[in-house]
Amino acid sequence: MSPHGNPEVPASSASEVIRGAEQVPSGAPTPEAAATETKAAATTPASENQVPSIQPAVNHADRGAWGLWEVFVRSSRGLSHVHAGSLHAPDAAMALRNARDLYTRRNEGVSIWVVPADAIAASDPDAKGSFFESPQGKDYRHATYYTKSEGVKHL
Amino acid sequence: MSPETTTGHGDISTGVAGGDSNASATRITPGNALRPEDIALEVRTGLAKPTEDVAEYALRLGDDALVLAQRLGHWISRAPELEEDVALGNIALDQLGHARSFLSYAGGAWEKSEDDLAYFRREHEFRSVQLFEQPNGDFAVTIARQFIVSYYQFELYRRLTESSDETLAAIAAKAVKEVDYHRDHSAQWILRLAGGTDESRTRMIHGLRLMWPYVNELFQDDDLTQRLAEAGAAVAPSSLREDFDRLTGDVLQEAELEVPDVPAAPGGGRRGKHSEHLGYLLAEMQVLAREHPGASW
Known about the structure:
Chain A is of the alpha+beta class. Chain A has helices at residues 14-22, 31-48, 92-103, 128-132, and strands at residues 67-74, 82-89, 111-116. In chain A, 28% of the residues lie in helices and 14% in strands. In chain A, strand 1 (67-74) and strand 2 form a beta hairpin. Chain A is elongated and about 60 Å long. Chain B is mostly helical. The two termini of chain B are 31 Å apart.
């Protein structure tokens, strides 16, 4: 399973179920043996989850395990990085390279950041009202609300 | 001709610096770089004309890149992930760009266009070495071929930037940065496939064993390269071997792989002797242009 909690791959993906099934030997196993096999198959994904998220060498057996990364591109010096999109990659080094190939093909950037998608905490879209509507109508929070005092220079 | 005197599109960027809404991450600027069209124009107007020897040499390098581009193009929609589709596609397009530049220039000696050379020569007239035409195999086989090709091309183009032939030097200067990235791409995958699962490691070792017999041919000198190397226009292939061995050796060592101990293939691609695979590749590549001569698409 993806260490980054790729939302496109459910926690118990079909491939893992199939992989678990393959571990059961053919023929009729004794109930005890079958139970052991099932337990072994069930514990495998859990232990894989403890693999650190960023590793130089990957150890994912199935390609569905590639994590989701968010890509930020800076188009030129002096500008900030802007979210460009997302991609799949097995680790940070490959995510950077994939980002280069996917999002800077037309000379868009001078710098790239990649961030594991699940490392981003996002505001709740349903809470838009309580989060963002409060500043509306509060003109006094803008500098232009105030009239310049007489005799103050350099404003 | 040199990169400095070459005029490209110029910057048609519509973005405005200053952190406003125009500061898009996807704005389009083609930038300034040597393009195959620039070389074709120089050849047509007589500004650049290769000698017979230089044209033969450019034909070799162009054929290498063209055959590889065709091979890599086959991966589109077939790579392990969409992201890798694009990565291999980008590399294929880089190689196609190099091929177009070299073939446009070579054609100047014989009044032929890049299309004449690409689509209307027969198998025995192609001068690519046999490594480039080897089938893609699985992903590891393709990475093994990319690994050898990119480390070879990087050493070649790096030295060719010093060529006394200004057009060759300019093409190499553009190509060397792109091939540097191809090196990185293949090395990253060598490390990951070798250090991944038992299956991926087995396939990586298999891929290297399949491709390594064709390494030898890359570094063989002949009369043409000797004449050109003495004139300072080309690079003697044998002079690249030491750096190639050292740098590929470093990567293989880091991946805990061994340099495959396999006998060398007979070679002969530079004389038009190819493996059984090139004919099929050319048939697919050339069929449309031959079926509909002069068609554009």
